Amino acid sequence: xxxxxxxxxxxxxxxxxxxxxxxxxxxxxxxxxxxxxxxxxxxxxxxxxxxxxxxxxxxxxxxxxxxxxxxxxxxxxxxxxxxxxxxxxxxxxxxxxxxxxxxxxxxxxxxxxxxxxxxxxxxxxxxxxxxxxxxxxxxxxxxxxxxxxxxxxxxxxxxxxxxxxxxxxxxxxxxxxxxxxxxxxxxxxxxxxxxxxxxxxxxxxxxxxxxxxxxxxxxxxxxxxxxxxxxxxxxxxxxxxxxxxxxxxxxxxxxxxxxxxxxxxxxxxxxxxxxxxxxxxxxxxxxxxxxxxxxxxxxxxxxxxxxxxxxxxxxxxxxxxxxxxxxxxxxxxxxxxxxxxxxxxxxxx
Length: 349
What we know:
- By secondary structure, this protein is an alpha+beta fold.
- Helices cover 43% and strands 13% of the residues.
- The strands form three sheets. A five-stranded antiparallel sheet has the order 8-7-6-5-9, with no helix packed on it. A two-stranded antiparallel sheet has the order 1-4.
- Strand 5 and strand 6 form a beta hairpin.
- It starts with a strand and ends with a strand.
């Protein structure tokens, strides 16, 4: 299984994973053989890439949260946020139900090293981002041995952390260029707006509201909106800050392509300990795969292959498909880099 950008798709390729609509319904199922008309439709709908390969092998890969649950969560966040944007109140019950499903699945798959590479349309960014941040935050909460109540409070705060962006004008939120200083000042207000929305919502803890308020605070006092320092930032907000930073960097946006997980992890490590909490960053690194299954990599030997499975940074299984001269192998070779230290990944292609 590998990730192929839509502009590089060819008729006859097989989908390894299903493609979902904004409502969480399947548009193209796993195993479908692509036709030119399907590719044109994917391009028209704004999908940046899809998973290509053996659908049965892809289905066997471990996941922290099932794709069906994640898509249901995205659809629920979209519905809830749209209601608020249209002047309605935020209904906590449906959000709590989908959060419970996420927490239950993450707890059951606590040993999974997450290969979170999300394929989402640009106009789905906010909703998919909130769900990804929730999944990542819960994974860190599990690793930190939070009890069930704390996990669910963390998850609620994480999935709603950007609700304040509903109050930001679309011409700023969706602007395909650098924001002016005035626009950036308005964008930063989303943390205050989010705090106000959540504080006014019945059945929601104040801790969840403070996640929305504080997730852009930084341990050195250089964040916003209040310039809080280390001990003044709620632990939930520190967790969501790391998850938020990672997913924002790795996601395709309307104005740029996302960076690779490996590149994002390098940036996160560079931000710690000045901006991000060291303990949280260490936990995050133990739970996220720098090279997710399906990505194309070049080894330090010059060989090129596809990551098949990952069990942490030191244990990667790669299917080598090209030799050091760039010639395709007649029979691809599967190599466990954790067992053969002579080979290492040089870079992601």
